[in-house]
Amino acid sequence: MSEHRGEALQTLMAEGVRLESVFLESSEDGDFLVYYMRSESQEKAEAVAARSVAAIDHYHQQFKNETWVSATRLELLLDLER
Hints:
The protein is α+β, with helices and mostly antiparallel strands and 82 residues long. It has three helices and two strands, in the order H-E-E-H-H. The termini are far apart.
Protein backbone atom coordinates (compact mmCIF):
# COMPACT_ATOMS: atom_id res chain seq x y z
CA MET A 1 0.00 0.00 0.00
CA SER A 2 2.86 2.38 0.78
CA GLU A 3 4.04 2.10 -2.83
CA HIS A 4 0.57 3.16 -4.00
CA ARG A 5 0.01 5.95 -1.51
CA GLY A 6 -1.34 8.44 -4.06
CA GLU A 7 -3.88 5.99 -5.44
CA ALA A 8 -4.90 4.95 -1.90
CA LEU A 9 -5.42 8.59 -0.89
CA GLN A 10 -7.62 9.17 -3.95
CA THR A 11 -9.87 6.25 -3.08
CA LEU A 12 -10.10 7.38 0.55
CA MET A 13 -11.16 10.84 -0.63
CA ALA A 14 -13.90 9.34 -2.82
CA GLU A 15 -15.10 7.27 0.17
CA GLY A 16 -15.17 10.29 2.50
CA VAL A 17 -12.47 8.74 4.69
CA ARG A 18 -10.33 11.23 6.60
CA LEU A 19 -8.05 8.74 8.36
CA GLU A 20 -7.26 5.06 8.00
CA SER A 21 -4.71 3.23 10.12
CA VAL A 22 -3.78 -0.44 10.30
CA PHE A 23 -2.03 -2.00 13.28
CA LEU A 24 -0.46 -5.45 13.57
CA GLU A 25 -0.87 -7.30 16.84
CA SER A 26 1.33 -10.40 17.15
CA SER A 27 0.68 -12.71 20.07
CA GLU A 28 0.83 -16.37 21.02
CA ASP A 29 -2.65 -16.70 19.50
CA GLY A 30 -1.43 -15.47 16.10
CA ASP A 31 -1.24 -12.28 14.11
CA PHE A 32 -4.18 -9.87 14.06
CA LEU A 33 -4.84 -6.71 12.07
CA VAL A 34 -6.64 -3.84 13.75
CA TYR A 35 -8.11 -1.30 11.34
CA TYR A 36 -9.10 2.19 12.42
CA MET A 37 -10.99 4.44 10.06
CA ARG A 38 -12.53 7.86 10.54
CA SER A 39 -15.01 8.90 7.87
CA GLU A 40 -17.98 11.12 7.17
CA SER A 41 -20.14 7.99 7.05
CA GLN A 42 -19.21 4.33 7.42
CA GLU A 43 -22.09 3.36 5.16
CA LYS A 44 -20.96 5.79 2.44
CA ALA A 45 -17.36 4.56 2.64
CA GLU A 46 -18.43 0.92 2.33
CA ALA A 47 -20.82 1.64 -0.57
CA VAL A 48 -18.24 3.62 -2.56
CA ALA A 49 -15.57 0.97 -1.94
CA ALA A 50 -17.94 -1.79 -3.08
CA ARG A 51 -18.62 0.03 -6.39
CA SER A 52 -15.01 1.02 -6.99
CA VAL A 53 -13.16 -0.18 -10.08
CA ALA A 54 -9.79 1.13 -8.82
CA ALA A 55 -7.02 -1.46 -8.87
CA ILE A 56 -6.02 -0.68 -5.30
CA ASP A 57 -9.58 -1.30 -4.05
CA HIS A 58 -9.68 -4.58 -5.97
CA TYR A 59 -6.38 -5.58 -4.33
CA HIS A 60 -7.71 -4.64 -0.88
CA GLN A 61 -10.90 -6.68 -1.36
CA GLN A 62 -8.88 -9.67 -2.64
CA PHE A 63 -6.53 -9.39 0.36
CA LYS A 64 -9.47 -9.38 2.79
CA ASN A 65 -11.14 -12.33 1.05
CA GLU A 66 -7.95 -14.40 1.11
CA THR A 67 -6.66 -13.59 4.59
CA TRP A 68 -9.44 -12.52 6.93
CA VAL A 69 -10.95 -15.36 8.90
CA SER A 70 -13.35 -13.10 10.73
CA ALA A 71 -13.91 -9.48 11.61
CA THR A 72 -15.19 -8.00 14.83
CA ARG A 73 -16.26 -4.40 15.22
CA LEU A 74 -14.82 -3.00 18.41
CA GLU A 75 -16.82 -0.78 20.70
CA LEU A 76 -15.67 2.84 20.51
CA LEU A 77 -15.06 4.11 24.03
CA LEU A 78 -13.35 7.44 23.35
CA ASP A 79 -12.75 9.46 20.19
CA LEU A 80 -11.26 12.91 20.66
CA GLU A 81 -10.58 15.23 17.76
CA ARG A 82 -9.20 18.70 18.13
